[in-house]
Design goal:
- The chain is of the alpha+beta class and 364 residues long.
- Helix 1 runs antiparallel to helix 2 and helix 9 packs antiparallel against helix 10.
- The chain folds into two domains: 205 residues, CV3147-like domain (CV3147-like fold, 3-Layer(aba) Sandwich); 121 residues, CV3147-like.
- The chain is 32% helix and 27% strand.
- It contains eleven helices and 18 strands.
């Protein structure tokens, strides 16, 4: 049976920001400013109802929205609710019909809020699902691409209200190339509404109940902080995660290029990891982690940096020298670890001559 619909409260929005930032695996953008905007809309009476994807009619039309670009650029060129809502109304005009609901493109970071902001302004519900179960840097790294669903049409709007629509694409790889090039032209960040999905497609080919997942993680962190407990350990215990490393940031190398934020962070071990080092590469999100010279975690499993004291997520654009951090891993949604999934989101899809190193065994 589908879960009952529920309305997001102010506390829910705060928990979502915490949980989505953690599930962003370093990317998706810091949700802080979108959280503030969502609170303002809620205070003005613009609420949002969350609905279970399993209750969607097969012929329902669902809009998939999110920001595209480099997290560092998103801090400087913020797309607010009206911009993301404009991508939705553009798509509706192209389709000649209104959406029945909106859903998240990715649950990670700031993108965990984009469908909520648009829904608040447009009076639509939000589906408890996304297309990644985390955050990924490319359009072809989604459950929809893995399922070979259509990549088009696709609308894009920037903060100046420049807009365009991609009506056709040979495949997801071509859609990624075309939209990435335009995203760079627009300043390495833009609001987008991806190819619309039917209710049947959402139920078959998305990562289900990920908004609820983010809320649960946020509540876990909030409860641990209130009890003056270890928030990092609480998340690991709640989500069946793995503790990989504890240390401090010794060096950060990053650059914004081709619409992504790329680089490496070097960690020096503390406590039980004293005398050891960890290196983590990133392309918007953390991708591969080495302890000394051994690979210990890879995409698509979620490699996550948390502030050791607070349990707050640390993004690839915000990590800095001297931070005390804990590195944990959470299990990726099962669709991402299938052979077809790994072809889209495994280490080789990111250019590494590595096979996926599973940490969590078989997942149904």
């Amino acid at each position: 049976m589908p879960n009952a619909p529920f309305d997001l409260t102010v506390t829910d929005l705060e928990d979502l920001a915490t949980g989505a930032w953690i599930l962003g695996t370093g990317g998706g953008g810091d949700p802080y400013f979108s959280l503030l905007e969502a609170k303002l809309h809620l205070a003005a009476g613009k609420g949002v109802r969350v609905i279970d994807p399993l209750g969607l009619p097969d012929d329902a039309m669902i809009g998939c929205v999110g920001q595209m670009g480099a997290p560092l650029a998103m801090q400087e060129r913020m797309c607010d609710g009206p911009v993301i809502a404009r991508t939705v109304t553009m798509m509706e005009a192209h389709l000649g019909r209104r959406f029945d609901a909106l859903m998240l493109w990715e649950i990670g970071g700031n993108n965990g809020f984009q469908s909520i902001l648009a829904a608040q302004l447009l009076g639509l519900p939000v589906v408890d699902a996304d297309a990644m179960g985390r955050a990924f840097p490319q359009a072809d790294m989604t459950s929809f691409a893995i399922a070979d669903l259509s990549a088009a049409p696709w609308t894009m709007v920037d903060i100046r209200q420049n807009s365009l629509i991609f009506t056709e694409a040979v495949d997801w790889a071509w859609m990624e190339r075309m939209t990435r090039r335009m995203c760079v032209v627009l300043g390495s960040t833009a609001a987008t509404c991806k190819a619309p999905r039917t209710g049947a497609e959402v139920k078959r080919a998305s990562c289900l109940h990920t908004l609820s997942w983010a809320l649960r993680i946020g509540r876990t962190v909030r409860a641990a902080r209130a009890a003056h407990a270890d928030a990092v350990s609480a998340v690991v215990a709640s989500e069946g995660g793995v503790m990989l490393f504890t240390g401090k940031v010794g060096d950060v190398m990053r650059r914004a290029t081709e619409g992504w934020l790329r680089g490496t962070v070097q960690l020096e071990g503390l406590g039980g990891d004293a005398g050891h080092a960890m290196r983590i590469d990133f392309q918007n999100e953390w991708s591969v982690a080495w302890r000394d010279d051994e690979v210990v975690a890879t995409v698509p499993d979620l490699v996550i940096l948390l502030d050791t004291a607070s349990g707050e997520a640390i993004g690839t654009e915000t990590v800095r020298f001297g931070q005390r951090v804990s590195v944990i891993a959470l299990a990726a949604p099962p669709v991402l670890t299938t052979p077809k999934g790994l072809a889209h989101v495994g280490p080789r899809a990111f250019g590494y001559d590595l096979d996926f190193r599973p940490l969590f065994g078989e997942r149904a």
